[in-house]
Write a structure and sequence with these properties.
420 residues, alpha/beta, Aspartate Aminotransferase, domain 1, Aspartate Aminotransferase, domain 2, 2 domains, seven-stranded mixed β-sheet, four-stranded antiparallel β-sheet, 15 helices, 41% helix, globular
């Protein structure tokens, strides 16, 4: 099997990470599946969790467990401090201007729905236009369709080419004074395409439109600076960045968040309640009704610490090498066709094999201990545009190795042999 020639820059980037030491921090990577060592290549769906995250959540439950914000006793004060510290960690991680611009939600899906239900319902009117793209996950399509149904707004879609890249000239032509909101993905979960979000935001702002960026697949893999991007809203999920499930982040510019009415009423989002009138709390609590996911927020904070300890630049360089190596190796297997060949990509390899359904590919690979995703990846318009019903998808994290990519290639060859 041929390999990619390593440039000095590649060698340097690989040397920045101690992969055996990193893998030792993820206990699940030692699992055996059907008697074979686990090769986990489904990171775009969810990432595994390091000991630092697991231990942080355990410490909370063992030594701190109490509700936040409302108690005067020691455990409540301690829990509140840890919870709000997690918010500040996220603030610095994405370079938000203020901690109150970080709203804790259940995940990226809830964040997008919150903006659609609150900001969208208040500010989007009949005849207004919302722009999304062909590359979107269903969670960045359906909420805007629902908003359009409620308000009479129109949904416009940025087309893409056969490589899985957005047609930026077509995007610019879609924009007008009727465009009130643009919502696009930073990195495609189905293809790995990295969109030029800074340019997308700049062009939208010229027309006075507000922009939401779905960063679920970007934040785990590269540094994100929401102020440098000038994003109005930016969303992501903890579980895709080595943190726990059940929590995510909506970042919003403070003025925009202050303009948004709550979509859930309950505890902690109020200053005062009478039967005649309720006065809402200040940010961020106005948009965080009820007892939050406290342990999960602390786990997310630990994941942020863990990623920053490794370094996002080192992670991006290492994963770029994995992607280049994987692209080269899979491209050499007869019958395998890569789906999504954008010039700018993150660590996703979607592929099909002639006359073999992706579900069959995934099932046979699983028997060799290889975990990949098979299906439409909650991105059916992408599949329709590229004229494939589904793909098999291998997605990488910084704990993956070239040897695991070689194991994937061997597994794919076995799939082809089985279906001979």
């Amino acid at each position: 099997m041929s390999t990619i020639t390593e440039s000095p820059a590649t060698v340097t980037s690989l040397a920045l990470l101690d992969i055996p030491a990193i893998r030792a921090q993820f206990p699940i990577l030692g699992e055996m599946i059907h008697g074979k060592p686990l090769v986990y290549l489904d990171n775009a769906a969810t990432t595994q969790k390091p000991l630092a995250v697991i231990e942080a959540m355990n410490r909370y439950y063992l030594h701190t467990n109490a509700n936040v914000h409302r108690g005067v006793h020691t455990l409540s004060q301690r829990a509140t401090t840890e919870f709000e510290n997690a918010r500040r960690k996220v603030q610095h991680f994405i370079n938000a201007a203020k901690p109150e611009e970080v709203i804790f939600v259940r995940g990226c899906t809830e964040a997008i729905n919150l903006v659609a239900s609150s900001y969208g319902t208040k500010f989007i009117k009949t005849g207004d236009e919302i722009v999304i793209s062909y590359l979107e996950h269903h969670s960045n399509i359906v909420p805007w369709q629902m908003l359009c149904e409620r308000t009479g707004a129109l949904l416009k879609v940025i087309p893409m080419n056969d490589a899985g890249e957005l047609d930026m000239a077509a995007y610019e032509a879609l924009l007008s004074d009727r465009t009130k909101l643009v919502s696009v993905v930073h990195v495609s979960n189905a293809l790995g395409t990295i969109n030029p979000v800074a340019t997308i935001i700049e062009l939208a702002h010229r027309h006075g439109a507000v922009v939401l960026i779905d960063g679920a697949q970007a934040v785990p893999h590269t540094g994100v600076d929401v102020q440098a991007l000038d994003a109005d809203f930016y969303t992501f999920s903890s579980h895709k960045m080595y943190g726990p499930t059940g929590i995510g982040v909506l970042y919003g510019k403070k003025a925009l968040l202050e303009s948004m009415p709550p979509v859930q009423g309950g505890g902690d989002m109020i200053l005062s309640v009478t039967f005649e009138k309720t006065t809402y709390n200040k940010l961020p609590y106005k948009l965080e009704a009820g007892t939050p996911a406290i342990a999960e927020a602390i786990g997310l904070g630990a994941a942020v610490d863990y990623l920053q300890g490794i370094g996002m630049a080192a992670i991006a360089a290492y994963e770029a090498d994995l992607l280049a190596y994987g692209t080269e190796v899979l491209s050499q297997i007869p019958g395998v066709r890569l789906i999504g060949t954008a010039k700018e990509k993150a660590g996703v390899l979607s592929f099909v094999i002639e006359n073999i359904h992706p579900h069959d590919i995934g099932t046979i690979l699983d028997h060799d201990g290889l975990a990949v995703r098979a299906g439409h990846h909650c991105a059916q318009p992408v599949m329709d545009r590229l004229k494939v019903p589904a793909t098999a998808r291998a997605s990488f994290a910084f704990y993956n190795t070239r040897e695991e990519i070689d194991a994937l290639a061997a597994g794919i060859r076995r799939v082809i042999e089985v279906f001979g």
